[in-house]
Amino acid sequence: MRLLLLLVASLAAACRPCPVEVPQVGPDGGAAPCVTSADCLRPSATLLCATTEDRLRDCVDCVGRRCVRFIPEACP
């Protein structure tokens, strides 16, 4: 039974999405500046990242004073 639980836990961990970081582009073609994630433009279905755990979903965040969108994809 313990072996089965370990197997299920390892499979669940392997299926977690990996966030891909996509820098947002500003009107001038450079990085979109920000102070908080609320400053970043986002598509209607995209969330604001409140925690690093949110980055496992489609969200935008202010990282190093630039807007970044995190898109979950399958881990390699």
Layout of secondary structure:
Layout: H1 2-14, E1 17-23, E2 47-48, E3 59-63, E4 66-74
Parallel strand pairs: 2-3
Antiparallel strand pairs: 1-4, 3-4
Provide structural commentary.
The protein has 76 residues and is α+β, with helices and mostly antiparallel strands. It has one domain (17-74). 17% of the residues lie in helices and 30% in strands. It contains 1 helix and 4 strands, in the order αββββ.
Structure described in brief:
The chain has 1 helix and 4 strands, in the order H-E-E-E-E. With 76 residues, the protein is an alpha+beta fold.
Measured between the Cα atoms of the first and last residue, the distance is: 29 Å
Query: Percent of residues in helical segments?
Result: 10-25%
List the quaternary state of the chains: single chain
Query: Poorly predicted ranges (pLDDT <50, ≥5 residues)?
Result: 3-12
Topology pattern, helix = H, strand = E: HEEEE
What's the total helix number? 1
Strand content: 25-35%
Q: Roughly how many Å is the radius of gyration?
A: 16 Å
